[in-house]
Amino acid sequence: MFKNKLFARYSITFMFIGVLFMFFYSGLQNDHLNILTPYLQSTYGWDDLTITNPVTMGAIVTIGLYLVIGAAFVKYGVRKILVPSIIVMALGCVGIAAAGQNYTIYAISLFLIRVLVVPLQMGGFMLAANWFIKYRGRVMGVITAGSPLMSVVGIGLLTSLVSNYGLNTYNMIAGVLVVLALVTAFGIKDTPEEVGLHPDGIDHAPYSESDEKEEPITVKQLLSESRAWKLIISYGILQFVIAAMMSYMAVRYISLSTPDDIPNLFVSKALLWLSIGAASGIPMSYVIGWIDDKLGSIKASLVLNVLFLFAVIPLAVMPVGGNTALMAVWAFGVACMTGGVPTMHPCVTSYVYGRRQYMAANKWIMSIQAIPMAFALTFMGTFNQMGKLDMAYYIMLGMLAVSFVTILSMKNIPDANEPDRDYGDKQAIK
Question: Residue limits of the Major facilitator superfamily (MFS) profile domain (predicted)?
Fold first, then answer.
């Protein structure tokens, strides 16, 4: 695809900012709560649910927001919605920095951040679906490396910055977000057709779209199809598990700390393994994308589902004081989990519905998936306050068994873009 210089310029720019999209999506959706929760507990004495309730409320609102954002992307284009969303999210970061003990300002700011990470994720997904078919999995594997990258450097960096600068750290995040908004506004286009190009940089329109209906799939059609419900159930479970896991990693390790772990087990031991494991796991985003391109989205999804076990099982059985081997496995699993779902969710939806029908289907699928995900923090917070956080991990293992069986039942679903999988090799590229 890099033989076409104009396509190369746009695709490289997209992959660069796409990494940042996923870095901040992962960080500002739930990951930053690993630092924010202990800080606010120790500084202001707030409990788990007081700190995270604005996130839960935001997650509930996102149930409908997926529909609104998806429709807006189709009608107005990705950039016209994404750029102002990033700027308002930056204002939310400024609000957290300025809030102090004013809970109202804190809650509104955190709510805005949680809500406006939705267009950040959906925008990256739709741009990838618009620009790539044959290379979609591998490109998604590149940009979704931003999620485990957040685990490698982001959590440790935030921990250090909050320790030194307190909540003023969020002012720094806001500044970076404003720069990201400007690059998004001027550096990319919504579709390759806007600049006279075609997906993957080839010289003609995709074969698989030649007889595709122009009318987007309706919600009635979508919800009457078993393939849609299989997507909703399988990836709904995977997203619930990510939201639950990522927001309570630090809390889990702190609860297992001993007097020898200073200041706590998460900082003294787990962060190091998270960096090492996540660094080794970053290439897995690309590997999963490669499997998607070469073997199809269903087989890649099964591999991803198994990799989730590497993240969940160690935290379920982790002893007091930690265990080196379990921490290493957990850290690798976290990287595969956080990088793999953002890679595969748009890939498997495009696999089933095709490039043109992607957003029409995706907005409904993600809206329904957001319903259980909205209560992931409440789920974890409730078990934590009961002193039975380990039980939450065992429940998630049962959920992952359900998702694996559901994905396996999708094995006969055809690839909507099958005619175009090899066309880049068969056509002269300008």
Answer: 1-192
Cα(223)–Cα(220) distance, integer angstroms: 5
CA dist., res. 65 & res. 115, Å (int):
8
Complete domains list, the chain, with CATH: 5-189+216-415 (1.20.1250.20)
Closest CA to 363 of 26, 125, 44: 125
Q: Cα angle at 316 between 310 and 321, to 5 degrees?
A: 105
Q: Which conformational region is residue 7 in: left (phi greater than 0), alpha (psi within -120 to 50 degrees), or beta? A: alpha
pTM of the model: 0.74
pLDDT above 70 for 209: no
Percent of all residues in the chain with a pLDDT value above 70, rounded to a whole number: 94
Six-digit token string for 353: 């519905």
SS (H, E, C) the chain: CCCCHHHHHHHHHHHHHHHHHHHHHHHHHHHCHHHHHHHHHHHHCCCHHHHHHHHHHHHHHHHHHHHHHHHHHHHHCHHHHHHHHHHHHHHHHHHHHHHCCCHHHHHHHHHHHHHHHHHHHHHHHHHHHHHCCCCHHHHHHHHCCHHHHHHHHHHHHHHHHHHHHHHHHHHHHHHHHHHHHHHHHHHCCCCHHHHCCCHHHCCCCCHHHCCCCCCCCCHHHHHCCHHHHHHHHHHHHHHHHHHHHHHCHHHHHHHCCCCCCCCCHHHHHHHHHHHHHHHHHHHHHHHHHHHHHHHCHHHHHHHHHHHHHHHHHHHHHCCCCCCHHHHHHHHHHHHHHHHHHHHHHHHHHHHHHHHHHHHHHHHHHHHHHHHHHCCHHHHHHHHHHCCCHHHHHHHHHHHHHHHHHHHHCCCCCCCCCHHHCCHHHHCCCC
What's the pLDDT tens digit per position in 8-56? 999 999 999 999 998 999 889 877 887 888 889 888 999 888 998 998 8
Token pair for residue 11? 């695709």
Mean pLDDT value across residues 156-164: 87
